[in-house]
Amino acid sequence: MARYIAFFSSINVGSNRLTMADLRYAFEREEFENVETVVASGNVLFDYDDRPSDGLEELLGHMMADRFDMDSFAAVRNAAEVRQAIEGNPFSATGEENQVHTHFLSQQPAPDRFDDLFAAYAGRGPERLAAGPRSLYVDYVNGVGASRLTGPFIERRLGCRGTARNMRSLRRILEKMED
């Protein structure tokens, strides 16, 4: 069995209200093991047969639609991928840990999609951006709430879904994964 984290998007936002107890129960009904929610809503640790994480993302998407009638994306990563999301983020050493984020993406965008995003956002705000493996690294500098760099803007430019977590949360999650 391998240990994974599912980072859900759009849970407890708008009409997608869901308790973490109901989410844990749904995981357990699907025969995931050692299910635990962690840090904030929408983060679920679990054990499952070792397999590529993109297949698990599809499975969890179907689970959310079937059990809760929700269209929610889940980025699934193993401990090595979470560690890479922290260590590979070029802003993690210089930015504030609650402002530096990794956006976990549903697929790897082509390099020209990242170029399009960077060009479309140039001059719109102080954020720093960098491409990563199935991820986008962002230092929000003045805070996510004050930023014009939104999830929908990113998703339109990159052509895929995503969900973000800050360095503080990722470090706590990785610590729990490696316990």
From TrEMBL:
Alphabetized InterPro entries for the sequence: DUF1697
**Record's Gene3D superfamilies?**
SP0830-like domains (3.30.70.1280)
Q: SUPFAM superfamilies of this UniProt entry?
A: SP0830-like (SSF160379)
Highest taxon, organism lineage: Bacteria
A Pfam family: DUF1697
Please state what the protein is called.
DUF1697 domain-containing protein
